[in-house]
Structure formats: structure tokens, C-alpha cells
């Protein structure tokens, strides 16, 4: 059975689809919380993962840290050291998670496991306008707040994957499947992913979570 990695744009219901896929396939879901817990075990200096993603993105921030380190800033030096360890740490975490069939919901998992023999790397995307409307419905916010949140999430995803693995999260060539969530129901997306992982109808868990079409 496969290891599915799911990199989902904001507003594409990646969390629901990953949970349903894992339940239907009868495998573990490795989500943000479980990955963060494992990362803290390996390196307690990481701290809060959300705050870390904010710090890592962007070449200007890196340039400022480099200047700070050369001028003797201990904090800047420690931050640079942490950044240097992050790619290897990310690969170690993903490799450990992928030892058994599972669904990994993590933006950069495709880049951390590029040669995993059983991996099905999935990119869930959709047009911005569609994702903004979906975000509005899910989070119950107005259109302006939804658009701002979605664009910010897109920026953080790109910066995080680029900083850690030097990869472009929007390069569809890096994925086994690149699926437009606006064109398929959530149920249908799960069906496609199960088929891509080689899971037959007979092998599917009848107790899996049902999604609304």
C-alpha cells in the first residue's frame, strides 16, 4: 500500500480529504500536530512550528540574520544554526513517518521524500476566487479577511518549502497527481487518491469517514 503525501492550498479542504483518505485506506494520518510533536522530540530548540514558519520565509530575513551573526549576535547565530539543521530534520521526520503506509498532510513532504518508492505525492489546488469562497464558508469570515488569509497561507507555503528544500511547491512536475479541488467533489477526490495508491474497493475500510459531496 502507498504512502500519500498531500500538499494542499488553503481553501481546498486538505485536512478533511486527508482524514477521509486515511480512514478509507485504513492507515494512519500524519498531520501537522503529530509532525510537530516528533520534531520537538528530535530537536527541542525548534519551539512553536507556526512561529517557526513565520520566521523562516523570505531572503531578506535570512540576509538580516547573516549580518547579525557576522557582527556577533548570539541569537542570530543560533537562528542560523537552527535553519541549517531544518532540511535534514524535515527529511528524517518524513522518512520515519513513511516507514509504514500512511497519509502525510504536510506542504513539503513531497520534497522531503522525492525518491520514496511507494509515495503518491498529491497537490490539491484551485483557483484563488474559489478558494476564497470556500475559506469564507469554512471559517465564517468576510471576503476581505478570507482573501487576505488565503494569500498569506500561499506565501508561507512557497517560502517554507523553498527555504527548507529549495523546491517550488507550485511545480506540478514534482507531484504524482495535481488535482483541481474546484472540479471534483471531496468524495471523488478521495476515490481518485485511493485508486492512485492501489487500494481496491475490497480493501477499503467500510468504517471510513464519509464526506459530503
Could you explain how this protein is built, in words?
With 213 residues, this protein is an alpha/beta fold. It is built from 9 helices and 5 strands; from the N terminus they run βαβααααβαβααβα. Helix 1 crosses helix 9 and helix 2 crosses helix 5. The two termini are 26 Å apart. About 9% of the residues have low confidence.
Which bin fits the share of residues in helices? Answer: 40-55%
N to C succession of SSEs: EHEHHHHEHEHHEH
Main sheet strand line-up? 2-3-1-4-5
Q: Structural class per helix/strand content?
A: alpha/beta
CATH superfamily: P-loop containing nucleotide triphosphate hydrolases
Query: What is the highest CATH level, the class?
Result: Alpha Beta
- Which whole number gives the mean pLDDT? 83
Instruction: Using the coordinates shown, work out and report the CATH topology.
Output: Rossmann fold
Low-confidence stretches: 58-77
Count of alpha/pi helices: 9
Distinctive features:
213 residues, alpha/beta, Rossmann fold, 5-stranded parallel beta sheet, 5 strands, globular
Amino acid at each position: 500500500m502507498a504512502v500519500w503525501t498531500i500538499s494542499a492550498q488553503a481553501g481546498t479542504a486538505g485536512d478533511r480529504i486527508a482524514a477521509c483518505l486515511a480512514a478509507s485506506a485504513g492507515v494512519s494520518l500524519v498531520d501537522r500536530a503529530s509532525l510537530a510533536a516528533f520534531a520537538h522530540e528530535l530537536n527541542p530548540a525548534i519551539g512553536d512550528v507556526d512561529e517557526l514558519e513565520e520566521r523562516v520565509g523570505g531572503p531578506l530575513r535570512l540576509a538580516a540574520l547573516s549580518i547579525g551573526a557576522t557582527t556577533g549576535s548570539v541569537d542570530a547565530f543560533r537562528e542560523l544554526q537552527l535553519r541549517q539543521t531544518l532540511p535534514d530534520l524535515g527529511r528524517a521526520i518524513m522518512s520515519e513517518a513513511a516507514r509504514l503506509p500512511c497519509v502525510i498532510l504536510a506542504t513539503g513532504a513531497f520534497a522531503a521524500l522525492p525518491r520514496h518508492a511507494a509515495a503518491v505525492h498529491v497537490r490539491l489546488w484551485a483557483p484563488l476566487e474559489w478558494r476564497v469562497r470556500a475559506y469564507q464558508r469554512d471559517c465564517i469570515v468576510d471576503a476581505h479577511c478570507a482573501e487576505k488569509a488565503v494569500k498569506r497561507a500561499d506565501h508561507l507555503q512557497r517560502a517554507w518549502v523553498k527555504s527548507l528544500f529549495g523546491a517550488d511547491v507550485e511545480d506540478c512536475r514534482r507531484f504524482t497527481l495535481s488535482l483541481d479541488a474546484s472540479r471534483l467533489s471531496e468524495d471523488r477526490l478521495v476515490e481518485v487518491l485511493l485508486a492512485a495508491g492501489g487500494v481496491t474497493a475490497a480493501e477499503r475500510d467500510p468504517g471510513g469517514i464519509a464526506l459530503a459531496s
